[in-house]
Amino acid sequence: MSSASTAPASTAAAPASALADVTASDASLRRYLHGLPGVDAVGLEARAATLATRSIKTTAKAYALDLAISMIDLTTLEGADTPGKVRSLCAKGANPDPSDRTTPQVAAICVYSDMAATAKQALAAGGGERIKVASVATAFPSGRAALSVKLADTREAVAAGADEIDMVIDRGAFLAGDYGKVFEEIQAVKDACRRPGGGEPAHLKVIFENGELSTYDNIRRASWLAMLAGADFIKTSTGKVAVNATLPGTLLMLEAVRDFRAATGTQIGVKPAGGIRTAKDAVRYLVVVNETAGPDWLHPDWFRFGASSLLNDLLMQRQKLHTGRYSGPDYVTVD
Amino acid sequence: MSDEPKRKTAKAAKPAKSGTSATSGKTATSQSPKSPATARTSGRTPVGAARGRVDVLKTYKLFIGGKFPRSESGRVYEVTDSEGNWLANAPLSSRKDARDAVAAARKAFGGWSGATAYNRGQILYRVAEMLEGRREQFTAEVAAGEGLSKAAASAQVDAAIDRWVWYAGWSDKIAQVAGGANPVAGPFFNLSTPEPTGVVAVLAPQDSSFLGLASVLAPVVVTGNTALVVPSERAPLPALSLSEVLATSDVPGGVVNVLSGRTREVGSALAAHQDVNALDLAGTSGDPELAKELETAAAENLKRVLRPDEDGTDWSADPGTSRLLAFLETKTVWHPIGV
Amino acid sequence: MTDQIFEYAPAPESRAIVDIAPSYGLFIDGEFREAADGKVFKTVSPATEEVLSEVAQAGAGDVDDAVRAARTAFAPWSALPGAERAKYIFRIARVLQERARELAVLETLDNGKPIRETRDADLPLVAAHFFYYAGWADKLEHAGMGPAPRPLGVAGQIIPWNFPLLMLAWKIAPALATGNTVVLKPAETTPLSALFFADVCRQAGLPKGVVNIVTGDGATGAELVAHPGIDKVAFTGSTAVGKQIARTVAGTHKKLTLELGGKGANIVFDDAPVDQAVEGIVNGIYFNQGQVCCAGSRLLVQESVQEELLESLKRRLRTLRVGDPMDKNTDVGAINSAEQLARIRELADSGEAEGAERWSAPCELPGNGYWFAPTLFTGVSQAHRIAREEIFGPVLSVLTFRTPDEAVAKANNTPYGLSAGIWTEKGSRILSMANKLRAGVVWANTFNKFDPTSPFGGYKESGFGREGGRHGLEAYLDVR
């Protein structure tokens, strides 16, 4: 317990400088990350399972469905992506349910960097000006490329108008214990998120690929590593491996952002991605957000769902809630 | 000690029968005084006297905390053989002796229960080894105290020594028999282990002063409990002599404490003592009223109580594990299984 | 939508699934009948004070009838091949699973505990317990209790109100598996689930007289314990009553097992997995409103991390949802009775009077019913009553320690010895602590876990004998 939770008490006066010491060297970074409280896997999973039994009804459910829609990073990350596919997705994001104009818009459209410009234009043209464009970068999804390539990838995306960059960490370096390398890479990408001409820098989401990190202890360390390096969001996964977002993994990351804010005053967002397909799943995540990090995170600025098929299930549930009848796939659009 | 076997050969002048002292603790200290010389030579070592040498007699003492004190009360009571011949004066333990013994047993509990089972097993085996060398002394004491022939007494002593050996071997096996893993329906490692109950008061059998004693004492201490033994009231000498063996067998002080005296008096003090965890009522066999009284007193701090067998106990029979299990607690430890 | 708050709307479980009759009799020899003298008492819902039903108060004659019925049933029941007895008990387990929702609702109504717990903890464990012991019925000669262990006869069983049906399962399942017959007295404030269990026995086709249920208060229990026709007394409840029972059966042949009170220490080291430790502390003392004999009612936290841990704990307590037990989102329900509430209040007040600092998360308590907000005390010393006496309510006493030895000394410094918790990431320390703690159940990096295969029971004044697992058979067998 020498870490997260102790930080506010022991370094309340100057948390930032204390944590600056942490990142001063590879050795200090390593000591810090390995000094974080351990995670008991069974206890963590039991807590997530308990929260998953929360029963969200009527008004709370209506609120949760709309909130979940507004938190979606509507995603297409396929080799077969075309400008047409991306434009169609943007239209869907801007107007998720043509039959109900009160439906909120999604938070962002998430694409590969070469589609960022297309997405930006389509949103601007289709009533989605407030929807962000998120671009994956840094040799997504494997992250196996030279740093120079990753940075070029990032700069291209930012130049194309991406509001948000979803980078992947070098899991190989992380698992090899080379935390300094991962740290510096995140810093470098963060730097590349700045816009040459000024303006709001792109927000940086840092993807851990929890399924490859394998243990909860690693997820907690990766969370702190990324937050220390300047991530605006921490994100579970690429959606491209066997194990993607899980409720316990997300709960753990929510604990990390909660403790990081307590230690530094800086609030960081969380994005589970991959495998969240049903409205029921989404509501469970929101319950976990509510009871772990707290209501401050119940906003698209601080919590996102990386998803594609989730949106239609949320829409069908929304229709059910409004009409009292169960909906079907023919009553939502396929984009 | 060397002349003990010869004792049976003669019975000279009997001392005055202790009469009421066998049933009344309070009067025991005011027995009619006898000439020490007469009493001792007549009762215990006539042969030695016959050959012209006055034997050196043993003063029997309590065994508390590894030491051999007299009763703090200064009381003794007469121990006679089955025909009423004076054998010795045994300490007549008081409530304060009981209290001191409980303190000693409690103090010894941490170390003894924390010793390895292998270590305890070796120490109990060492007791058997030491007894083996003193078989004749114990045979004589058992024969005198229980009125047995030498052969019968010898068989009792042999069986008692064998019982110590038998229980010595249980030290590192009972946990495997009585404990084990429990297959709970969840991601948890779950293990049950027997642990000693603590400080156990043992009212040893009245009718079997040495085999019965071994049969109730060894199972208590082999598992790591510490014991307060109230030996057979009528025949306490083997138990008091056993103390000497225990003291020279690496049994740590306080692990076994021997309180000779009135079963009712000492038993009542122990049954009511709040720092005693369990009570073996073997010595109340045949006295259901006393058994009930002590069990009732024991309820005050919920001592584990082992009642006497309703129809008496055959101390020569295979004892099984029930006396071991009677003074064990089962501790179950859970831990999550996760990476 | 940002100005909205994620308030969970009420999510009440339907009580339509359970049909509570206006009155219930005693279940003796397979029949429901009134008490001989016609006496009855009311059972209320502690969450609302609504009267749920009227229940017969068994007198001496009724207890005698029940014992006679059990005695008559004993010979054929114990003579039944184990495999056949097993099938009856398996049937009971299955019927309990089928009726789990109904019984969960009933239990929540009568006890006041949250439906989430009766649904997710009590009822699954109840069925599992019968299923587990059913399998033992034809394997007793392999249980390490001698080559031919015999049942004792008629078991008199008295259970508490904190887990009514689960405690019934802990008592009845091993008794039946070993070939005994039973007379069971449920707690005065929670008689209904035992009476519904009588109907489960009927559906399972259990021979009449094998299970008898006599409802009543402490006087009924005393009659049962003192009845010369029983061979076994099994009691779960307070240490004071346990001692009285031990005195009553002294000098008889009745075998006795007692599962009594506790003052469990939950020990948190500075290297604990802190978020799970917080959950464990919460689960340890606020599960079932703290009305748990093995509750972790003393938190022993290493001094170096006290501040941070308490901060995390308080933050977590603010998220506890206290209220209507029938709401599926309720974490903490009602205290079982006005009497128990008064006791909790009295002890909590003593904590303040003795100088400890009291803290409760802000929460609105319902107007009717018996409620006590989850509370913790800091600045508690070993000498305070709230550190020594079992409160049996949602009240946590926080103490500190500096070294492992001090933690052990403080944890063991109680006449009780039922449970303990250890939170540390260091494996060797867990094992060392587990060895030294004088408690029957030690939870390391977890708390309040139960399983039919896992023996449960106390050291010292927490009672003797074990329930659950192979060990639990011993209480109902003549092993000599």
Quick summary:
By secondary structure, chain A is α/β, with parallel strands linked by helices.
Q: How large is the share of residues in beta strands of chain B?
A: 5-15%
Figure out the total of helices of chain B: 12
* N-C termini distance of chain A: 48 Å
Percent of residues in helices of chain A:
40-55%
Quickly count the domains of chain A: 1
Structural class of chain A: alpha/beta
Radius of gyration of chain B: 21 Å
* Inertia-based shape of chain B: globular
Oligomer: heterotrimer
Question: Can you tell me the number of structural domains of chain B?
Answer: 2
CATH architecture of the largest domain in chain B: 3-Layer(aba) Sandwich
Give the DSSP E fraction of chain A (strand runs of 2 or more residues): 5-15%
CATH top level of chain A is: Alpha Beta
CATH architecture of chain A: Alpha-Beta Barrel
The spatial strand order of the largest sheet of chain A comes to 7-6-5-4-3-2-1-8
Helix coverage percent of chain B = 40-55%
Description of the molecule:
The complex is a heterotrimer of chains A (335), B (339) and C (480). Chain A is of the alpha/beta class and 335 residues long. Chain A has helices at 7-10, 15-22, 26-34, 41-51, 58-70, 83-94, 116-125, 147-159, 171-175, 179-192, 210-213, 216-229, 247-264, 279-292, 310-323; strands at 72-75, 108-112, 132-137, 164-168, 203-207, 233-235, 269-271, 305-307. The termini of chain A are far apart. The longest helix of chain B is centred in the middle third of the chain and has 21 residues, at 150-170. Chain B is globular, with a radius of gyration of 21 Å. A five-stranded parallel beta sheet of chain B has the order 7-6-5-8-9, with helices on both faces. A three-stranded antiparallel beta sheet of chain B has the order 3-4-10. Chain B is built from twelve helices and ten strands. In chain B, 40% of the residues lie in helices and 15% in strands. Chain C is of the alpha/beta class. Chain C folds into two domains: 23-260 and 460-478, Aldehyde Dehydrogenase, Chain A, domain 1, CATH 3.40.605; 265-444, Aldehyde Dehydrogenase, Chain A, domain 2 (3-Layer(aba) Sandwich), CATH 3.40.309.10. In chain C, the strands form five sheets. In chain C, strands 14-15-16-13-12-17-18 form a seven-stranded mixed beta sheet, with helices on both faces. A six-stranded mixed beta sheet of chain C has the order 9-8-7-10-11-19, with helices on both faces. In chain C, 62% of the residues are buried. Chain C: One of its GO terms (molecular function) is oxidoreductase activity, acting on the aldehyde or oxo group of donors, NAD or NADP as acceptor. Chain C: It holds the Pfam family Aldedh. Chain C: Residues 34-479 form the Aldehyde dehydrogenase domain.
